[in-house]
Structure formats: structure tokens, C-alpha cells
Amino acid sequence: MRLKSDFTTITLALIPVAIVINIVVGNIVQVVLKLPIYLDSIGTVLVAVLAGPLAGAVTGALSNIIWGILFSNPTIMPFAITAFCIGLVAGWLAGRGILKNILATIVGGLLTGAVAAIVSAPIAAYIFGGITGSGTDWLVAFFQATGANILQAATLQGLISDPLDKTISFLVVWIILRGMSQRYLSHFPRANNVIRS
Amino acid sequence: MKISVNDLHFAYPNGVEVLRELSFEISSGERVAIIGQNGAGKSTLVKHFNGLLKPSRGFVTIGDWDTQSHTVAQMAQRVGFLFQNPDEQIFKRRVFDEVAFGPSNLGLSPEEIERHVSAALSRVGLSDMREMHPYDLLPARRKLVALASVLAMETPILVLDEPTIGQDGRGLARLGALIDDLTQQGKTIITISHDMDFCAEHFERIMVMKQGRMLIDGATHDVFARFELLAEAFLEPPQMTRLGRALGLPETVTTVNEFLGAYAKTREPRH
Amino acid sequence: MIQLDHVTYTYPQAKHPALSDISLEITESSLVAIVGPSGAGKSSLCALLAGFIPHHFHGILQGRALVHGQDIANTPLAELVTHVGYVFQNPFTQLSGAKLTTREEIAFGLENLGVPRLEMAERVDRVIELFSLRDIANRSPYEISGGEMQRVALASIFVMKPRVLVLDEPTAQLDPLGARQVFEAIRTLTNTQSVTVIIVEDKTEWIATFADRVITLHEGRVVLDGSPDAVLTSPLLAEIGIRVSHYTQAARAASRHRLWPSELALPTTLDKAIDGFKRARKKYENLG
Amino acid sequence: MLIGFSARWPHLPVALFVFLILPLAVWGQLLRELGRTTLAVIFPFALSITLVQGFFYPGATHVIFSLGPFALKEEGLLFAYGTLGKILLLAGAGLLLLFSTHPADLILALVQHGFPNALAYIVVTAIQLLPHMQAKAMAIVNAQRARGLETETNLWRRSRALLALVGPLVFSALVDVHERALALEARAFSAPCSKTSLKELHDTREEALARWAIIVLSIAFIAWQIGGL
Questions:
Q1: What is residue C5's three-state secondary structure?
Q2: How far apart are CA B18 and CA B150, in angstroms?
Q3: Which value does ipTM take for this structure?
């Protein structure tokens, strides 16, 4: 981990904005466009790419905590662990150069989604009895009805919805960073993750 | 295309009323500047012209369309809208693509889009920057990109919210010439501006708003002649109007040329 | 106090230098206005004086730039900020974000410098008085008007006791009332405190009234440097694309028709315009 | 809260909520607010979990009644009740903390107990920026709709609209971040000295003692539960 060199002033200025981007984009997608996805980790992936895995992880974890605080909903706070892992994995993958071409970006999204599903499942199963209080809960019911236990059902449910969501997030970040003038990107500690030299 | 505003009231869901009893018409080809302090309701009013806001009471029609029964995207065929901050709309990697976004939403053919975009870019003086990244341009130029992206939609009505901010002398002159030129083509131009001198030079009708109401609505000369009412809205008349008044010129002047004409006249030998 | 010696600066990957061969000296306690068309290098010059060039924007810096005898290029940013304060155009982005009241916001810089609490409180309160911010001291810095926000920004920089304040178009995004408030705050500073203010501004009437010196930039070079009356009435201004006040425009046109007294400089303010045109009239009446 | 989660007795979380959280809320005069928000938070869970686990709890046998091929089972309901109790406790305790302490004060307290300053900066700034970025997002939606972007049509066109809305938001945010970083530097944010604070937070001895007592008690209880497994 490059703790000192990743957590520069510009990274610190970026993280709160990225946290808010997570929340606001999640809102646009669900309220304005009414799309059937969450897309609430765009900011996390963005930070992970521009400032490294740990910065991404911090962004993810704090996003869930702050979301819980601002919308008075503590039940999403335990999933800070998932968001933390999403940031770590995305940052690690970005360090391997996956944001430099579209196919690698998609693979990265799928991988990150799989990790998210595997991390979320025990949290969902242990604390929330396998459900999330959202529309995908019928999937849990379906898997349990076909003989899975709660943990298995929650994992399978996550494996269906998470990779899709994260892949779209990765693609959006890929398009945005490709579209951003390099003048503004070059100041971030891990600008090399996106700038083709 | 005529704009009619009839007994317009607007209140936010929390009940705070920001527009009260507004009724007026703006005919085709008019140049109208709306002035007033921040919070007077200017932006709220113009957002009714393309349906971004819908009246709580009364109605607004653009030609034969009631804004109530059309989506904002539909209204975009009739009303072009330049927002204050260009960064709140730019998302393409090339100036050309950014300007083409509006026309392509309107469903124009690629040839038409090319023609509209080229014309708009040359109007704002950015023809040789069409391949550049908008964010590599200076903020003043980014604002011109946003203006071009509105012009390229070739709507009969244009709303410009604070177009002069950040423009230097040259940008200001270009903007003024553009406005004069567009009115020649019969377009209606409505602007919100704090720049009284600019309003005086290029707009023939002034609306003064205060606390959600219309304080004065009239020809530029008549409005700027009313120093006391303007002061009530915390506004100062244009430089030439103040100078003319201080020198005791018999008529109200608002522009440099008017001032010179009127001043020369006072010096003609009296008969 | 500020000394630039043949300074040339080019941003990374830029084809042309943003600043070309600039040599300047700015002495203690004055109000210096910088004017120029967009892209002339005004913001780059400000960024250099604050040390953002070359400490944040890399690129190529040639020549020598000194603040208080210290070379900007070799002095760490954290130290430079105690000499030169910087206020941005957008009042919103320069709020720290981390403070819940205006008073704490003003203290933010002092906290970072590790100033003891008692001294900090005293300095903050003095600045609150100076800028007449007492009414909003306990309000959220995010819930005040643009003009107030910009005054808070000014106060939160001034509290750090810089000897030079660099203001990059501080009123460009404000309405007339907000701009007036900020201008009044700047006047208070220059009248009562020993601080040099360097301000990028295009409101010529204000510059003409209060600036001690006006520097004009064009394509990265200093093209005019002198008293407000001399610089702001130069015919070069309109040529390079700077806004010229209607007073000056009217008098220049009038002088072509001998309607402006030839011995008088062109006016930049209402008072001077009134005076000149009245004199011209009197002269004419005497002749007639 | 930890006690509630590690307990095997399903009534404990509910009991803790009723006998600990609620009295504290009454004491802090937050009962109405707390009650309303807690209900809003747990309602979707209650609905979901009762249906999902009531009918589909793995290995449940005691059928209460049948509905075609589906059967409501006792074990499932019991599990649902236990889980809901935990969620109720989680939501209740979390909300009690939120309603009784301003998040910024909480952060300041954490910093004064050794949390990194940067963390405080991030959390407080995010909380303060949210309303403004929401307004900005709304302005972007307006600007793009005014350029003819439909946000109310079929799924495909709405998906395509995504970039036109998210793009400007992230672009302008990155530009702002850049400027804010410079503004922070201009205020000695990265000065290499130890920081001080204008605001002082008072923490009495009793409060400190109570906090330690809670931590020790929780650890002891978890140890006891695990040991008893």
C-alpha cells in the first residue's frame, strides 16, 4: 500500500465528493431514470482508480455509513464491509491496468461484482435473515424453495444482481475517465491507471 | 412565436410562493431583458418558458402549446435555453459532439446536424476548435460552447441566463452582435442579466422583478428613466443614463450613441 | 516584496507559454489591479504568486520569482501560504467543507498551522469584526449568500496574516449587491491594514476609483503598467479585447468631434465624466 | 447491540429495544421521531422477511396453513421474528445515536480520541456537500432536458440518457475537486505541524467511565455466548 503517496490533498478533496457521487448517482438512476439497477458505487470505483485501493475502500465504506446517517437508515451500514471490498478490488484491478480497454473493464466489473456478492451474503444471511428489503428478495425465496440454505440463497441472489450492476458502474467510470480532459486527471496519484502514455 | 403568460403563480412544494400574478406577452422577434436582485424570481420565471417549471396557478403558452401539456424535451423544439454554468451540461469529448447533442435529440438527420453545428460554431467564433476537448478550453470559451449548443437547435425562442458573465470586451462585443443578428432573423431573445450597460445596448424591452412580482415592464428608455423604482429593486441605471441625468439632458439616454446625439443637440445654438 | 525577473512559464503539454518574460516589482501596501482579455495569463500570474505554479501545476518555469526575498520555486507551499493568501473566483469551492459554522470556517487555516486555541479565537473574532461578519458567525458557511461566502473566504485567508493577498476575479460570480459587499471588504483591508492586494478584476469603474496601479496582460506579456487613469483610458485596451467603460467610450468619441476638453484625460468614472462634459459645455458657451 | 446479536435467545434483541432504547429515547425526548423513522426503516424488511422466511425457511416442517403449493411454517416465522428483532435493535440504536448527536460532533469526538483528522474531514465534508450536489444534479437534469433529452420514455432511451446526466456531474465534480484541493493548500491543509482546534468538546469523567463499562460488558457477554456454544 502506498499510504502517504495515495492520500494527498487532492485525494482527500476527492473522497467526500465521490461519496456524494455514489449517493446522488444512485438517486438519479432510481428516481429520475427509474432504471432497475443501483449504480451506487461509481464514486467508489472512481476513487479506487484515481487514488488506489485503500482510498477506494475508504470511500466505499464511508459511503454506506454516511448514507445511513443522512437518510436515517442504519440498516445499510453493515454493508460498508461490502463497499470496502469493492473499493479494494477495483483499486487492485485498476492497478493491473484494466481500465485501459473496454473488455478488461467489463471483466473487472464482473469480478468485482462476484466479490461483492460473496462478501454481502454472510452479512445479509446473518443480520438480515437473507433478505435486503428490496425487489430482489423474491430470488432468495426462489433459491430457498429449490433447496438452498439461507447463506447459499443470499449468495446466489447476489451473484445474479451484483456483477451486472458493477459491470455497468465500471463501464460508466471507463467512459467518463476516457472522456475527461487529461489536464484534470494528471494531478491524481494514480493517474497512470487511466492515462495512456 | 408568441409567449403568453397569464396570471402565473408559482410556489414550491413547501408552500413558499416565488412568483405572483405575472401576466404579459412577448411577441416574435422581441428582445427582452429581465433584471432584478438575486432571489427576485427571474430564473424561476424563465424556467416556465420551456416547462422546466409548471405554474401552480395560471398558464404559460408558447405559440399554441401550453407548457402544462408538453414535456421539457418537446418544448426544446421551440425554446432554446442557455444556463449560467456551462459545466452543468458538457459531457462530450469534442466540441462538435457537444454542440450536436441537442440537434440529435431533436431527431435531425446527420447532414442537418452537421450544418446546424457548423453554423452555430462559426457564430460564436469557435469554428477552428470543433475537434478540441471542451474542458481544455478556457471557462469563457466553454460558455460559448454551451451557447453554440443552444443555437444549433435553431429554436424560434432563445433564453439566455447571464450570458455576459466571464466574457471579456471581445466576447461581449461578439455576443451583442450575435443577439442583434438573431433578432434580424425574427428570433425572440430573452435574457437575464446584471449588466445594465449590456441590456441598454442590445435589448428594447426591460422587465424589472422584485420579490416574485413584476415591478416595471416597458421600453428600455422608460424603464431606465425611473431611478427611484430601480433603486427600490437595488438596481443602478446604465452608465450613460446616469451621466445624461447628471448633465441635465432633456431626454433619457441609455447607450453611448444616444448620449452623444443628445449631448451634441444641447450644444446646438438655441434659437 | 514581490519581484519577478524575466519569468516565463509553460503548462505541461502546452504549445505556448502562459506567461512570457514578465518582469515586475510590487512594493509594500498597495492595491494592484490586473486586467486583460480572457486567456491573457491573469490566472496564471496569480497562481505563480501563490506558489501553485510550480508546486501544483508542473510545467516549465524560467526566470526568478521572489516573495519577500524567498524564491517561490524553492519554498514549500505550506510556508508560502503564510506570506501570500489566495482567494478564488468561486466562493463555493473554497469553503473547506469540514466546518459547520462561519466562525470555525475562518479558523480552519489557523488550526492547520497549529495556532494555540486562545490566540486563534482572538484572531478569528478580530477578523469577524473587521469584515462585519458577526451576524453570520454562527451560521453554516453553506447557507449564506454568495457575497457573504466570498467575504468569509477573504476573512479566512486574511486571518492567516499574509502580507500579500491575491484575489482572482473575486466578484465575477456575484450579483451587484454581493460584489459591492466584497469590494467594501477589500477597501476596508487596504485602508486599515498593511497588506498588499493584487486583484484580477474587470469592473473598470471600481479599479479607477481605488487601485494604485493597473497592470495589463496580453498573451502572457505585460503590455501596460501604470496609474489607473493612464492605463484604463489607453486605446490599446479595446484593441486587445478588454471591456472599456461607457464613460471612456463616450468621451473618446466626443473628443473626435471636439466635444471633450482636449487638455483633460479621458474619464473612467461617473464623476470625472460629469466634470469633463460640464467643462466642455462651459468652454463652448464662452466661445459662443 | 453486540449483546443482542450474539445472543441465541430470540427475545433478547426485542427486549433490549423495549427496555433500553425506548427509555433512552423518552429520556432524550426523541421518542416520536425515533419511533416513526424506525418503523419506516424496518417496514420493508418486515414484509419481505415474513413472506420469504415464513414460507421458504429451509428445513421447516410445522405448517400453520397452506396456500396452494406454499405453506406458512412456524420455524420460518420464528426465524423472521428473531431477525426482525435484530434489525429493530440495529435501527433503533443507530437512529438513537443519530438523533441525539450531530454527526459532526460525533466525528469531532472521535478525532479527539485519536481518529485521523482526514477521516473527520471526509465525513463532515460529504455530509455538507450532499444537498449542493443534489441541487447540481437537478440543474444538470434540467439543462439536458432543455436540450431535448427525454427522461421519461422507454427503458433503452432512459439508459442512454444516463451518461448525459452522470457525465457532467462527475466532470464538474472533478474540476471542483481540483480547485478545492488548491483552496485547502492555500489554507495550510498539508502544513507539517500538529493541528489545533477552535472548538472544544467536553467529555465528563462519568461519560468516559460509562463508555468503558459498555465496552467491557459487551466483550464479556460475547465471550460468554461463544464459550457456551
A1: strand
A2: 27
A3: 0.91
**How does pLDDT run across A139-191, given as a tens digit for each residue?**
666 666 666 676 777 777 778 788 898 999 999 999 999 888 888 888 899 98
- CATH fourth-level superfamily of C1-83+162-231: P-loop containing nucleotide triphosphate hydrolases (3.40.50.300)
| DSSP E strand boundaries for C120-252 | 164-168, 196-200, 213-218, 221-226
Sign of CA dihedral C52, C55, C57, C59: positive
The pTM score is: 0.87
Picking from D120, D131, D182, the nearest residue to C52 by CB comes out as D182
Asked if A60 and A185 count as a contact pair (C-beta separation under 8 A), the reply is no
Distance from C-alpha of B233 to C-alpha of B235, rounded to nearest angstrom: 6
D173 part of contact set with chain B, CB < 8 Å: no
CB D71 within 8 A of CB D55: yes
Which residues on chain D are in Cβ contact (under 8 Å) with C110? 196, 198
Task: Return the number of CB contacts < 8 Å for B and C.
Answer: 89
**Which SS3 state, helix, strand or coil, does residue C217 take?**
strand
Q: Which fold has domain A2-188?
A: Arp2/3 complex 21 kDa subunit ARPC3 (1.10.1760)
Burial of B181 from C-beta contacts in 10 A (0-12 / 13-18 / 19+): exposed
**Distance in angstroms (rounded) separating the CA atoms of residues A35 and D8:** 40
Number of cross-chain residue pairs from C and D with Cβ atoms under 8 Å apart? 104
Q: Which residue in C175, C244, C247 is closest to B169 by CB distance?
A: C244
The boundaries of the domain holding residue D157 are 107-186
Instruction: Give yes or no: residues D124 and D95 share one domain.
Output: no
Owner of C-alpha cell 500570474? C45
The H or E element containing residue B39 is none
Catalogue all structural domains in chain B, each as residue range(s) with its CATH number: 3-235 (3.40.50.300), 238-271 (no CATH)
Q: Is A105 left (phi over 0), alpha (psi -120 to 50) or beta?
A: alpha
Cβ D166–A46 below 8 Å, yes or no?
no
| H or E segment and range at residue D8 | none
User: What's at C34, amino acid-wise?
Assistant: I
**D10/D74 Cα distance (integer angstroms):** 14
Per CB-CB distance under 8 Å, the chain D contacts of C167 are none
**Contact (Cβ atoms closer than 8 angstroms) between residue C150 and residue C170:** yes
Residue ranges, chain A, pLDDT below 50: 197
